[in-house]
Every structure is written in C-alpha cells, then in structure tokens.
Please model this.
Amino acid sequence: MSQRELPLAGIEVIEFTHMVMGPTVGLVLADLGATVTRIEPPGGDRTRRLLGSGAGYFPMYNRNKGSVVLDLKSEEGLAEARSMCLSADVVIENFRPGTLDRLGLSYEQLKVDNPGLIFCSAKGFLTGPYEHRAALDEVAQMMGGLAYMTGPPGRPLRAGASVIDVTGGMFGAIGILAALERRHRDGEGAYVKCALFETTAFLVGQHMAQKAVTGNAARPMPVRVSAWAIYDVFETANADEQVFVGVVSDSQWQAFCKAFGLDDLLANPDLETNNQRVERRDEFLPHIREMLGAMTREELLAKVEEIGLPYAPIMRPEDMFDDPQLNAGGLLEVTMPDGTRAALPGLPIEFDGERLPLRHDLASLD
Model:
C-alpha cells in the first residue's frame, strides 16, 4: 500500500505525549497514513527508558512517527514548537491539565492563528468535579468498576493490559476523525477530549445496563452467572494446557452433545433451551469437565473445530510471536532500543483487503 493510498495521507499531526494513552491516539493516525511528529524533551521521552511492564510502551505505540527534540523551557524551542503547531492539522497532548496553557500552546491560544486546528487532549477525566485529578490506567480501572468485575469477590484486579489507556486513545482518534470530517464541511477546527475514567465507564456500561434491566447488580466475572450454560475454560489431560469452549445456541448444543456422545443430555426435555440449561448447568457441567479433562488439548481442539464451536487454547502474550494468524500479515517489525528486531501487532484493520504497513521505524534521537 503506497503512501498516497493511505486514508490520512497529507494530514500533519504534532504530538506532545508520553506513556500510552496519548501515543495511542497518534499511533492510530500514523498507521492510517498521517505524518506524525513527536515533540520530545532534551534527552528524549522518559517512556523510552521505562523498565518492567513499561519496557514495551515506547516500541509498541510509536512506530510510523518522527521525533524532534525541543527544549520547551527555552524561547527558541518554544517558538519552534508553536510554529509546528500553527502549520499542523492536529495537535495531541496528554500532560497534566494546564501544562500546555502555561507554554502558550493550548487550543485557545493556537486556534487564533490556526482556526482549522483540531486539538486533542487525552486526560484522566472529562469535564466535571474530577477533571483536575491525576489519573492512570489502573486508577480508572479501580474507580470505574472494571477491576471489581475482573477479579474474584473482594480481590479487585486490573486487566492484564493497558486496556483503558489504549481504548481511551482510540476514542481520541475517533473524535479527531469526526472533527476532520466536520472540518471538510465548515472549515472550522475543534477541541476533542478523551479520558480514562469515562472510557472505563463506557466499557462497564453493559454491567450498569444489566442492573437497570434486572434490578440485580452484576457479579464479578469469575463468579458471574453466565448467559450460556457452557462458556468456560476447561482443563485437559495436559497439565498446563487449557481450552476455552463456548456453546452459545441451541443448535450448537445439539451438535456438541452428538459429537461427544451425550445422548442423555440431548434427550432431556429440561435442557432443550439455553435458559433451561443455564438454570441447570451445575447438574451436568461437572460431568462435562471430567469428560473434556480426559482429552489432550490437541484432541479437544480438533473436536471443537470439527463441530464449529467457538473455542480458544489459552495462550500467553509471547506465544503471539508464532501465531499463524498474526504472522499472515498482522505483525510489523520494528527495531528495539538494543538494536534487535521484533514483530509487534499492527492496527487490526484492513483496507481493500490489505493491512496497514510499517512506513517508518521507531524514531531515534541521534
């Protein structure tokens, strides 16, 4: 896919970002073809040097971008940054509220000379009583109900990835794309704001709706009453190899019972419909667990594949490097800080049957 074929080719974006949420906004635009330039402080964005679980932040969320080092505490650096913003289509920032205002780089200050500018702020909270609080992905998960729903009762647990940072950044990119379309009609720019807390609330909205519909509060996912009778992770004969299997329709139930020789369950009139099975799942699920537990993972996977059931072997992130589906075009190879190469997931989008390409490796500061 050539540069001019990419959907956002010609769109100029300036990023004042760090960590995950802000860079995710820019990543989406960059992968879609926009020219994205990060403004980094002297010595570079500290995200480049994070350890532990943060070591992958920079290489994952900053491909297809350029970087310019500017000292915003100097008159020269600040003047250069302002000049870049005044010629840009989009500016993205995710620093503490008021940081860019003090530098003269807020939306209100920039739009005077660049009325078509689209300015995106990625924050902890949207407008409201919390808007000046500091927040992180984990803070939002805890106070927004997601950690409560993820862990077992009494043990709130954050999700196993920066899901709020990433989805919050995606909502920021959606807002920018909508603002660009509106600008096509009226020529005016826009101020777009996305936030961690409200993103979390949106994600747990299904559980809020459950309470509204049923009158009963949603229980944490490990102890929830599933909507389907078989929708579980099953042990197999291999000690460390588990498989998720879902049976989510009456026709799938019939196929499942026939394939596994469960004639007694299939003939039981009290198990004909899904809701009947949900109410009686404790009666038959132990037998199914025992039956599937006697099979190797390979045997079970082959069986459910043949039936056409939803299934998944339980894998680890590092297993994804060798996943055949991802290796069919879903991985983009970038250079790590130590000079080695690694294939990381691209945007999960196809345009006209093609995946979006790697156009620029991670920008160095040399």
